[in-house]
Design a protein that fits this description.
Helix content: 25-40%
Largest sheet: 9 strands, mixed
Strand order of the largest sheet: 1-2-3-5-4-6-7-8-9
CATH architecture: 3-Layer(aba) Sandwich
Shape: globular
Number of domains: 1
Low-confidence stretches: 1-8, 256-261
CATH class: Alpha Beta
Order of helices and strands: EEEEHEHEHEHHHEHEHH
Structural class: alpha/beta
Mean pLDDT: 88
CATH topology: Rossmann fold
């Protein structure tokens, strides 16, 4: 636990571990900026709460919201192995158990496979008030990775050799053959207003995935396509101003952002 200056106020950073229903330890950081609303950030595959772009996002939101970041199993400092969305819903469930009783409203922004997990969880768990789904696969079996679309200098070099890009990267891979829920079959059950964000040049999960999810969503919804945008967390890296603008606009429904005394 520590304190740090942020936008002229004092923020308390609480670091801890949560235990899931299947006994996995989930590492988290809770940025307590003094607000009544919180936004949970759920990373994508091969990332973690130490990812520089996600920490920049957390910092950008800290002038209006408290923020919680965590590591899915098999990533960062959490235990276990990654099961390709089969059991990670337990991780997000443990986070919501911890965070939602502490705030008047809870938002969730989730990336890539983390967004697919978010869709499946929110289809049955109504504790999230507003959701942003970034580059989500509508079906894990239909991810359309295209290695020839990579920007080798800005993507491969960034992740492998740039200290900022390497920070927070890595995964411990588990079984991929376990049964998986399909977000496209669950998204209509979500009641929270949901925004879908996708990059037009996403080489991993093509934009059609978000269009399918958007079309099947029955809650209040919006679809944002960022022109020339890449995949998931790279959207925040390459288009930070546009990305943060869209995020803040969607979460602006939170009206009572008075500081906690």
């Amino acid at each position: 636990m520590g304190k740090t200056g942020h936008e002229g106020s004092i923020s308390e950073i609480v670091t801890g571990t949560l235990v899931t229903s299947d006994n996995k330890k989930i590492s988290f950081q809770h940025f307590k900026n003094g607000f009544r609303e919180v936004i949970v950030i759920a990373h994508g595959y091969y990332n973690s709460k130490q990812c520089v772009t996600l920490r920049n996002l957390a910092s950008s939101l800290g002038d209006k919201y408290d923020v919680l970041m965590f590591d899915f199993r098999g990533h960062g400092k959490s235990s276990g192995v990654f099961t390709w969305t089969s059991r990670e819903g337990n991780d997000l469930g443990a986070v919501l158990d911890y965070i939602t009783p502490r705030y008047s409203r809870t938002g969730l922004i989730a990336f890539s496979v983390g967004a697919s997990i978010g869709v499946n969880v929110l289809a049955r768990d109504k504790r999230v008030d507003r959701f942003i789904c970034v580059s989500a696969p509508s079906d894990m079996s239909k991810i359309d990775y295209r290695f020839w679309k990579l920007d080798w200098k800005r993507d491969v070099f960034y992740v492998m050799f740039d200290p900022a890009g390497r920070s927070g990267k890595g995964v411990r891979i588990g079984p991929f053959w376990l049964p998986k829920e399909k977000p496209a079959q669950n998204v209509h059950k979500i009641t929270a207003p949901t925004m879908f964000i996708h990059g037009s040049q996403d080489w991993v999960v093509r934009p059609w995935h978000s269009r399918v999810l958007y079309e099947r969503t029955t809650a209040p919804k919006e679809l944002v396509c960022i022109e020339n945008g890449p995949h998931a967390e790279f959207l925040m890296r390459d288009h930070p101003e546009r990305f943060v603008e869209e995020v803040k606009k969607w979460f602006s429904v939170f009206k009572d952002n008075s500081e906690v005394t």
